[in-house]
Design a protein that fits this description.
This protein is an alpha/beta fold. Helix content is 43%, strand content 17%. The chain has 2 domains: 105 residues, Aspartate Aminotransferase, domain 1; 223 residues, Type I PLP-dependent aspartate aminotransferase-like (Major domain) (Aspartate Aminotransferase, domain 2, 3-Layer(aba) Sandwich). It binds pyridoxal-5'-phosphate (PLP). This is Threonine aldolase.
Length: 356
């Protein structure tokens, strides 16, 4: 896509990547079978590989991260039972109230700073049940935390959460859609993260750049029920090895390079900070800028071929990924600096003149 003489730089999300020739070739050549009969060897290979990587005994390929999360939550928390999570969690903000709608799950929230749920916060919220009090069944954490700007739960924090919850007999689900970014940022191993949760969803179509899919990691004994829940949610697939092949290709070719996305996010953040804007220091591949008139910034930048989003009236968000290289990010930096300087200047002039 191009506007005028420029290539469009799309920093709206890391979901916008398109499969390249190598990934497409892997998909075209994938060996397949009917996965509902458990006969797709490529799906099996993907599930086995991720289970091994994160140290789980079972794995289930799902069409989306939302579905992986919802299956996991329904496995851990029954209808009329309680889940505790951060108030800005993806499962609450971006999953169409599915925990309530499909799981009958009551959620109670903590206001975690930067989205990082700690044992200390949880200790004040989780409840033991008794005949007249609804007890907490499970806790959910998000790694990295999307709405907080790709923030990382440190391993020690997750271990402390695990220790607290184990002591109370509570389960932990980790929404690890961007766990790959956390691993790249910290060097923490997949296994170390895996040991801190009872189940974990990992996404193939964000930083890894596959077109479709997530994988739910869980104990093998939960697989039959997980498979039934997936089928009931409309996620039973047939020759889905075509899609799993893209995931396997991404695991071979796109994990190491995530560090480049982080370097590009740092470049954008530093450039905008040097230009005088308030930027949250990015921990991974998401940059949040506090700027008045965010919607106007989005519209004006789009006209210059730089696509970004405004998650709030005074917040602009940039997400770096596989299809936005260093050159593209440099161009985005130039456009955004000019557009934001103009929009902020306009707002100041309006305020100074007293015009509405
Ligand atoms: C993207 C995302 C999901 C959902 O994944 P989909 O494949 O879009 O359904 C879940 N959790 C987090 C934190 C995400 O970023």
């Amino acid at each position: 896509m191009s506007i005028g003489s420029f290539e469009t730089v799309d920093l709206r999300s890391d979901t916008v990547t398109r499969p390249g020739p190598g990934m497409r070739a892997a998909m075209a050549g994938a060996e397949v079978g009917d996965d509902l009969f458990g006969e797709d060897p490529t799906v099996r290979a993907l599930e086995d590989r991720l289970a091994g990587l994160f140290g789980f005994s079972g794995a289930l390929f799902t069409p989306s991260g939302v579905m992986a999360n919802q299956i996991a939550l329904q496995l851990l928390v029954g209808p009329g039972e309680e889940l505790v999570c951060d108030a800005e969690a993806h499962i609450l903000a971006h999953e169409e109230a599915s925990p309530a709608r499909y799981g009958g799950i009551q959620t109670r929230t903590v206001a975690a700073e930067r989205g990082v749920v700690t044992a200390a916060l949880l200790a004040g919220v989780v409840r033991r049940g008794n005949p007249y009090t609804l007890g907490t069944r499970a806790v959910e954490v998000e790694q990295t935390h999307t709405r907080a700007g790709g923030t990382v739960h440190p391993l020690d924090t997750l271990r402390a959460v695990r220790e607290l919850t184990s002591g109370l007999g509570l389960s932990v689900h980790m929404d690890g859609a961007r766990i790959w970014n956390a691993m790249a940022a910290t060097g923490t191993s997949a296994r170390a993260y895996g040991r801190t949760a009872d189940s974990m969803s990992v996404c193939l179509s964000k930083g890894l750049g596959a077109p479709v899919g997530s994988v739910l990691l869980l104990p093998a004994e939960s697989l039959p029920r997980a498979g039934k829940l997936r089928h009931g949610l409309g996620g039973g697939m047939r020759q889905s090895g075509i899609l799993a092949a893209a995931g396997l290709y991404a695991l071979d070719h796109h994990v190491e390079r995530i560090a480049e996305d982080h370097a590009n996010a740092a470049l954008l953040a530093a450039g905008l900070r040097d230009a005088g804007f308030t930027v949250r220091p990015p921990e991974t591949n998401i940059v949040l800028i506090e700027v008045p008139g965010a919607d106007e910034v989005v519209a004006r930048a789009a006209k210059e071929g730089v696509l970004v989003t405004a998650p709030g009236a005074e917040t602009v968000r940039l997400v770096t990924h596989l299809d936005a290289g260093r050159q593209a990010c440099r161009r985005a930096l130039g456009v955004l600096t000019a557009v934001m300087t103009d929009v902020v200047g306009g707002a100041r002039d309006t305020a100074a003149s007293g015009r509405p």
